[in-house]
Amino acid sequence: MDVQFGNVIINDIANFDSLEAAWDCFNWLKHMRENHPVYYDPNEDVWNVFLYEDVKRVLHDHTLFTNKKKRSFIPIPRNLNNRSNLNFSDPPEHQKRRALLAKAFTPRSLKDWEPRVQAITDELVDEMEGRREIDIVQSLSIPLPVIVIADLLGVPSKDRNIIKKWSDTLFYPYEQGSMDEIRRKKQQAHQEFFQYLYPIVLEKRHQLTDDIISDLIRAEIDGERLTDEEIVLSSIGLLGAGNETTTQLISNCFYCFLIDKPSTYKELRENHDLIPKAIEEVLRYRFFAKMDREIAQDTNVFGPKMKKGQAIVAWISAGNRDERQFASPEEFDIYRKGNQSHLTFGAGPHFCLGAPLARMEARIALKTFIKRYSKVSIPKTFRLQDHLIKSVSYASLKSFPLIVEK
Ligand code: HEM
After folding, report:
1. DSSP readout, 312-333?
2. DSSP string across 360-398
């Protein structure tokens, strides 16, 4: 199995001195947009772009900004010579790889998945019954995506805790310890996860059912099919791509609706149809994301001369608050026109394949919860710093207590 864990890690230029400063990274992003929209970091030999159009260009234009990169800011697994690997490839080879995986993400699959996601959400919200204080992160945002993906892949949901543990070890870049130690842990988690999934794939080959692994076994393009190993690796990749991201989206929705703009919860309770648009505004306003690429040929498209082989980071969250694209961008406004043009799901050939699933999970989670509880408030003792954890997006909520009333 040809798996590597990030060769040379790019250290971040944003050096926040506390988790709260990191949570409020939008001030720093604004500063960079206004003062250093195209910024070269000589220590790391990395370019950084902060404006909406520039971020979009980096994500779209693989001829100038390739995904076949030697360096990255996250030590995620790379399965380089393998069709399960979408991340480290460019068109045209990327197209076929993506098309095979996309066989499991059709609009029809999404329709079939909806009742399954609803049933899982109902169960989680039912478990909150009788409690006056609920930690929404631990009770809903964390368990929902991992149970959903285990169910959709077709692996036993009783194994969700160990699956979550493997997924965290593999894809969270911020563990304590030396790089060697982190790599060793990741290798081990990868091996264990691989050995867990492999027999499941073999079994399903003999008995195809209604799940993503079976869809990937069936998938065929120009006579090409995925091997067992590629199906296992694709499944691991989906967990990595979808778990922490969707957890953050759901948690951040509650934060925006109750803290950034506290009138929102009531508005959504009165009109559920506003929920999808509110989710788009959270994706634009409070979702930390950045992506990296390598410069494929010398270029001066952004002004200064950038050299082939240098790394470039596209600061998606900075683009999402660029006033050239969004009026009054620092305002959280669920009625905003065109907020779905945010870049949080990427842009161009690598646009997130799981975006419709993530949107559906968030919509169902919020609607089910909001329908159940008429009033929600934050405990008086709430202090943000007690509820933050270091994460891929610098700082995310590890807990968020809510006081609820039916
Ligand atoms: C809020 C939740 C999510 C966010 C913010 C998010 C964000 C992204 C972004 C920014 C990319 C583009 C990466 C690049 O340009 O290099 C991406 C790609 C991808 N995402 Fe998501 N994602 C989310 C949820 C999911 C889910 C639930 C799944 C599937 C279960 C998923 C599967 C993928 C896959 C397979 C790709 C690779 C596409 C390609 O390279 O062609 N994502 N995602």
Report:
1. EEE-HHHHTT-TTTSSSTTS--
2. HHHHHHHHHHHHH-SEEE--TT--GGGGEEEETTEEEES
Taking the centre of ligand 1 as the mean of its atom positions, its distance from the CA of residue 241, in whole angstroms, is 5
| 240 vs 197 pLDDT, higher one | 197
Task: List Cβ neighbours of 216 (8 Å cut-off, separation of 6 or more).
Answer: 100, 101, 103, 104, 226, 231, 234, 235
Mutational test site, ligand 1, from 58, 352, 393, max ligand atoms within 8 Å of CB: 352
The answer to whether the CB of 147 is under 6 A from ligand 1 is no
Please name which of 144, 115, 114, 113 lies closest in space to residue 127, comparing C-alpha atoms: 144
Please tell me the residue having the least CA distance from ligand 1 atom 42: 354
Rounded Cα distance between 146 and 402, Å, is 22
Residue closest by Cα to atom 36 of ligand 1: 352
- Check: CB of residue 244 under 8 Å from CB of residue 172: yes
Instruction: Give the pLDDT confidence of 343-370 residue by residue, as tens digits.
Output: 999 999 999 999 999 999 999 999 999 9
Our answer on whether the CB atom of 250 is closer than 6 Å to any ligand 1 atom is no
Please give the distance, rounded to the nearest whole angstrom, from the Cα atom of residue 12 to the centre of ligand 1. 21
Longest Cα–Cα distance in the chain: 62
Closest to 394 (Cα-Cα) out of 326, 317, 333: 317
Domains and CATH numbers, the chain: 4-405 (1.10.630.10)
